[in-house]
Amino acid sequence: MSSSGTADFFYKEAQRLGYVARSAFKLLQIQKQYKLIKPGSSVLDLGCAPGAWLQVACQSLGPLKSGGVVVGVDLKKVKVPSTHCDSRVSTVCADVMNLPKHDLLNLSPQKKGFSVLLSDMCPLVSGITTRDAALSMELGMRALDLALGGAKLPNEPLEDVQPEDQPKNEDDVGILQTGGHLIVKLLESEDTKELIKICKPLFRKSSWLRPKATRSNSREIYLICQDLH
Length: 229
Hints:
Elements: H1 5-17, H2 24-34, E1 42-46, H3 52-60, E2 69-74, E3 89-93, H4 101-105, E4 114-119, H5 129-148, E5 176-187, H6 192-199, E6 203-209, E7 220-228
Parallel strand pairs: 1-2, 1-4, 2-3, 4-5
Antiparallel strand pairs: 5-7, 6-7
Helix pairs in contact: 2-3
């Protein structure tokens, strides 16, 4: 834990309120400002360990009778936290980089996709700024690919074939529902500017947020995309 006052405050608050990590306050702030997760939402949490965002997402669904689901995916096996979570929360141990889209679709209600996709994935930080940023960007692009589908992303030309002639496959289809919301954590760099350029035409609104609970020495920043066209 950082020795800074900010870190100490959020760490202690997390313990006091029963959250498994201080990162809960990042999603709590996003929820307060944007209200992306609503009662009945279907939420996919990529990189869900240790489970703090699962807790906040489940709280945001409202009472059990309101419905909704929260599915967490992580390389590590994550136990659903006993506080702030209920039977609507489940986890899967899998590598997001290799997990087929149809496997994720099968985890969604009626296999129709999710209304909110959260990506709090972060690479193992090496301390080499450019390398860490590149790895973070790779994870961010994977989250975008899963959410939107390959057909909506640039740099994937279909040589000599018009789009209408190309047969549809699972890579063309994203797992984020129309009207859905996307949150992606990145390590800020020149390349992150390109990511928002991709998202702006596809969502009603795309913006950056650096939550107050972010450590002062961190380059973490969150891309908030609202209402997929």
